[in-house]
């Protein structure tokens, strides 16, 4: 008899997904296949073959959770299901489940960033590696959602689609220079959120205007120019870094000011790093819908890097995402969602103050702990 799980737990969200297989080919329940894959990934499995091996090794445990009318599916069955499964529906179920985990934070930082699944290419069939754009909620340490960039497109068209399906009200959305676009600013404003967008050469005119104004004002000491300033100094591990933030909301002079929905301020960030006596200085520029609040902008700018440090790094180190060779059908993007499910579960668990990798090992050794994770 399968174990009953809380109504808000993952298994109930996955149970509504449509089975893409023909009835005559079904020997295993879809929910059993999906939940074995989730369990396997929580325990460190990385491929369809390893899903099968995990299932066989943990058969007695899994039999207490699932129906398993014909035992453990083969690796070919796992491969076929993940090739055929509708990634949009899978992602939608993921988002609904994640919203149940999410806690309310004032002005939460949501970083939008892309990552290429490097081994998902299929050169023999002219298929490039797929690129996924994800939304990472810094304070919650959760992936809120993801979307695959179309083969003949880029992040600029994918980001608005992702923004439209997320609950961003009251958040601060951060995006690197690729996402510094008028439409994206409008989408964020329409979601009742704020934005901090990096400026580079893709917005040549605005970048040049902001850089020229902020550097001239800085050189002159910001005479009679309303602004806010913050300096942060960090030392440790043989290095020192000083970060200075200047934020100004007197920007109506910008040529394209009226074309950017919600635009209120511009910022200059200066980073001075000293490592083993070598000093480097870098200046970066941003536009924002926030008022001239240097502390708030600093929090957003620094918070954006958490998507690299806490999500992308974990996907590569703990889940070997860049080594995954799944290429057929929808399997690359469906496995990306599966990895995000595992990341969210392991991040949401606060019972063990351990790394993701160590939690995976604990889940594989300790059945009660794995069962606890499945009920998150």
Topology:
Layout: H1 10-14, H2 30-42, H3 48-57, H4 59-63, H5 75-84, H6 87-101, E1 109-116, E2 131-137, E3 142-148, H7 155-164, E4 172-175, H8 182-190, E5 194-199, H9 204-220, E6 227-236, E7 239-248, E8 265-275, E9 278-288, H10 294-304, H11 306-317, H12 331-348, H13 356-365, H14 367-374
Parallel strand pairs: 1-4, 4-5
Antiparallel strand pairs: 1-2, 2-3, 5-9, 6-7, 7-8, 8-9
Helix pairs in contact: 2-3, 2-12, 3-5, 5-12, 6-12, 7-8, 13-14
In words, what does this structure look like?
The protein is an alpha+beta fold. It has two domains: 10-85 and 328-374, no CATH class; 100-312, Transposase Inhibitor Protein From Tn5, Chain A, domain 1 (Alpha-Beta Complex), CATH 3.90.350. 41% of the residues lie in helices and 20% in strands. It has helices spanning 10-14, 30-42, 48-57, 59-63, 75-84, 87-101, 155-164, 182-190, 204-220, 294-304, 306-317, 331-348, 356-365, 367-374, and strands at residues 109-116, 131-137, 142-148, 172-175, 194-199, 227-236, 239-248, 265-275, 278-288. Strands 3-2-1-4-5-9-8-7-6 form a nine-stranded mixed sheet, with helices on both faces.
* Fraction in helix: 40-55%
Radius of gyration: 23 Å
- Overall mean pLDDT score? 93
Largest sheet: 9 strands, mixed
Structural class: alpha+beta
Can you tell me the CATH topology of the largest domain? Transposase Inhibitor Protein From Tn5, Chain A, domain 1
């Amino acid at each position: 008899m399968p174990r009953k799980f809380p109504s808000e737990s993952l298994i109930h969200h996955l149970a509504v997904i449509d089975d893409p297989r023909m009835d005559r080919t079904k020997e295993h329940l879809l929910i059993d296949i999906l939940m074995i894959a989730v369990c396997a990934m929580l325990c460190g499995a990385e491929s369809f073959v390893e899903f099968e091996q995990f299932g066989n090794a943990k058969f007695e445990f899994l039999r207490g959770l699932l129906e398993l009318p014909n035992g453990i599916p083969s690796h070919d069955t796992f491969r076929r299901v993940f090739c055929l499964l509708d990634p949009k529906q899978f992602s939608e179920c993921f988002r609904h489940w994640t919203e149940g985990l999410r806690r309310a934070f004032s002005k939460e930082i949501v970083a939008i960033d892309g990552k290429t699944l490097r081994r998902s290419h299929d050169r023999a069939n002219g298929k490039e590696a797929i690129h996924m754009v994800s939304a990472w909620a810094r304070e919650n340490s959760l992936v809120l959602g993801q979307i695959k960039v179309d083969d003949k497109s880029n992040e600029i068209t994918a980001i608005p689609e992702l923004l439209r399906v997320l609950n961003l009200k009251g958040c601060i959305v951060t995006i690197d220079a690729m996402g510094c676009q008028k439409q994206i600013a409008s989408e964020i404003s329409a979601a009742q959120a704020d934005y901090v967008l990096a400026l580079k050469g893709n917005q040549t005119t605005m970048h040049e205007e902001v850089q020229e104004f902020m550097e001239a004002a800085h050189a002159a000491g910001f005479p009679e120019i309303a602004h806010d300033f913050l300096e942060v100094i960090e030392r440790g591990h043989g290095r020192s870094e000083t970060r200075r933030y200047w934020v100004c909301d007197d920007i109506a002079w910008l040529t394209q000011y009226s074309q950017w929905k919600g635009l209120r301020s511009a910022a200059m960030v200066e980073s001075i790093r000293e490592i083993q006596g070598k000093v480097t200085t870098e200046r970066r520029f941003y536009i924002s819908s926030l008022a001239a609040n240097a502390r708030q902008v600093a929090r957003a700018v620094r918070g954006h890097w958490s998507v690299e440090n806490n999500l992308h790094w974990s996907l590569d180190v703990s889940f070997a995402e860049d080594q995954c060779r799944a290429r057929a059908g929808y399997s690359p993007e469906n496995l990306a969602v599966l990895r995000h499910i595992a990341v969210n579960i392991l991040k949401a668990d606060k019972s063990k103050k351990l790394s993701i990798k160590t939690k995976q090992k604990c889940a594989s050794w300790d059945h009660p702990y794995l069962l606890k994770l499945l009920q998150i």
